[in-house]
Amino acid sequence: IKGNIKFIELNDPHSKLYVYDDTIWVLMREIFLLQVYGNFGEYNGIVIDAGAHCGTFSIPTSFYAKKVISIEPDPINLKVLELNKLLNNRENVEILPYALYSKKDKLFLVREKFSGDSKISNSIKSEIEVNTITLDEILGNYNEIELLKIDIEGAEFEVLLNTKNINKIKKIIGELHYDNPKLRDELKNYLNKNGFEFFEYKKSGIYNTSS
After folding, report:
1. How far is CA 27 from CA 32, 36, 49, 52, 133, in A?
2. Residue 87 φ/ψ, nearest 5 degrees
3. How do residues 153-177 score in pLDDT, each as one tens digit?
4. pLDDT band at 103 (very low <50, low <70, confident <90, very high)
5. Do residues 111 and 118 make contact, with C-beta atoms less than 8 angstroms apart?
6. DSSP state letters, the chain
7. pLDDT (tens digit, 9 = 90+) per residue, 40-57?
8. How far is CA 93 from CA 6, 60, 133, 200, in A?
9. Which among 41, 5, 21, 46 is positioned nearest to 149, based on CA atoms?
């Protein structure tokens, strides 16, 4: 990791987390201050956290949700996520050590700028090889998913556009990484056909202090 691991304690819900110090502000701002994924207390069903990182969303949500399925491929993140699960005694958090993808495969993990930030690749080789899992494989075990929170650094189109049982999910919130708006439009049309309403918030509207 690039930084150090810091200990933080949350008041609501009362929980304790170890977090990388070079990502604390981004995570606190996004998840807790702006609440881009909603309020933890509004989820009482089954939640999938794809790209769970060290559990900054998974752990607080698990105090309200029936179950949280945390998907995370990075081996360092997994250790911190497992530690946070144990620290808070969250038996309703299931950790899946995979990369979410459109098919079962073996891919490579490429680390990015900040600690814990990584993306999967089938073209750029690295020393970290990861197994993949499909969303349909997970959805096959459940009748309904209340929320899919997805932040998987560009693989979201590959995953969502190839999920056959996507209508089992009531709500999807996540980051989109694209250069070509046609890709966004393809996803929008696919979601609309499956009963979703599509809303996109521009990056400046979330991260710009003037907004």
Report:
1. 8, 11, 14, 12, 25
2. -60, -35
3. 889 999 999 999 999 999 999 988 8
4. very high
5. yes
6. --S-EEEEEEETTEEEEEEETTTHHHHIIIIIIS-TT--GGG--SEEEEES-TTSTTHHHHHTTSSEEEEE---HHHHHHHHHHHHHTT-TTEEEE-SEE-SSS-EEEEEE-SSTT-EEEESSS--S-EEEEE-HHHHHTT-S-BSEEEE--TTTHHHHHTT-TTGGGBS-EEE----S-HHHHHHHHHHHHHTT-------HHHHH-TT-
7. 999 999 999 999 999 999
8. 22, 10, 18, 29
9. 46
Question: What pLDDT is recorded for position 211?
Answer: 38
Q: Are 69 and 138 in contact (CB under 8 A)?
A: yes
